[in-house]
Each structure stands twice: as C-alpha cells, then as structure tokens.
Amino acid sequence: MFRISLPLLALLLLPITSTTYAQLLTFQSGERRNLLIELYTSQGCSSCPPAEQLLSTLLASDKLWKSYFPIALHVDYWNYLGWTDTYANPLTGERQQQHLKLNNISNIYTPEFVINAKEWRGFFRADRLPPVPTEVSGQLVLQFDTETKDAKMQLHNLAKTRPALCHFGLLTFDKNVEIMAGENSGLTIAQDFVLLSLDSVDAEFNNNNYQCRVKISALEQINNLGIDGRKYAIIGWMENIIAAPIQVTGGWLPAVP
Fold first, then answer.
1. Domain ranges of the chain
2. Whole-number pLDDT of residue 29
C-alpha cells in the first residue's frame, strides 16, 4: 500500500477543533474512459516547472474532474542535487519504475507524462493533450465519508478489461513553494495536483460489479481541510494488470466551514 511519508505528514497536521462537519460525497464518471494524467516531477529538476505549469492550466479547463484527472507525483531521486523535494515520496518512483517494467514508458526521467499508462512526449513539442478516448469502459462511482475517512468504489457496466487494483489518491494544491537551493534555487512555484497519498487495494467482484473500500490513510491525520488556505481533492481509479486505468473519477473535497 502506497502511503504518505511521515515528514510530509507532519507538515500537514493541524489542530483538532470541536467542530463536526460530515458529508457523504459521491463522484461519478460517465461510461466513456477518462484520462488519468500522471506527471513525474521534482522541485529539484530545472526542466520540471514548465511541465507543472501545463498541469496547472487544467484548473481552468471545463474538462477537469469530468474527462481530465491530473496527478503530480514528486520523485525523490533528484534530492541529491541540493534540494530535498518537500512532496517527494520514494513510492512515486516505484510506480514510475513499474510503468517501465510493464513497457508503458521507454525510460525514467523528469518531467515525464504518462497518460492512461502510455508515455506522452507531446509536452516537449508543445502539443495539446491527447483527445479523450471514445471507447466505453464502464461507469465508476466513488464515495467518500468526510467523517470516517472511508472511501469506496464500484465499477458498473464493465466493458472488456477486468480490473486488478483500486487506487484512491489524495491531492493537494500549494500556491507558494519557495525553493531555496538546487537547480531551481530562488524560485517560488505553484504545486498543483500534488499526490499526498495513494491507498491501493485489490478489486473484488461482488453483486455483478467490481468493488473496493479503504480508509484514506493521510486524512486520518489531517483535520480542518482548507483552514491552511489549500485546496484538496480526491481521485480514484481501477486499473488492469498492466497499470492501465479502466476508469477514473473524483473531484474537490469541501473545506470545513
């Protein structure tokens, strides 16, 4: 299971208040396959800020949380260059290595885009993102209980490929990250769609649907979402044995009023 690193978690801990604010949130995809847009990046990589800016432009897209589901996975293998990425997690590098072993990508580098488990080098040619697929893959429903931190998914009307794993990702958005050393020393950059944690479990077949359930590990330690001025989002997807997403859904988490 992919979990948030302890140093990063400590930065996000906030005081518990007596306010209770519970909601059952439901996110639902359509029948057509959506795009899971993975960006492997690092605060210590001089060529990464433009790629992260491309990801940030999706905040203004009417396709966000409908067809586009971006995540920025911060790797730790550039930390030796003089700056330790504040969002780095060694497990993101492991997922990138998995894509390599499964021949989804040709090499390990940053910035590297992987869209629906396929390496996308169009960024280096200033291409537009690939078009949204037209094939039907099934309808994915993600439910999240803000009080218990329990999340569950169901995949309905599955087309062809059977899912092997479910992933639940917690994302954060940090507008002012100051880089004090390394290749990007002196820059203040926005870090959007940052993957804080990824909880992964096997998909189980039950009542003619594929289902899974987890407790979002990082949120068990974070109180009062939004009180620090950050936005948070949750995404979930089911993928097959070659790490290709069958369907993905998700959206914004509400701040505590």
1. 23-253
2. 97
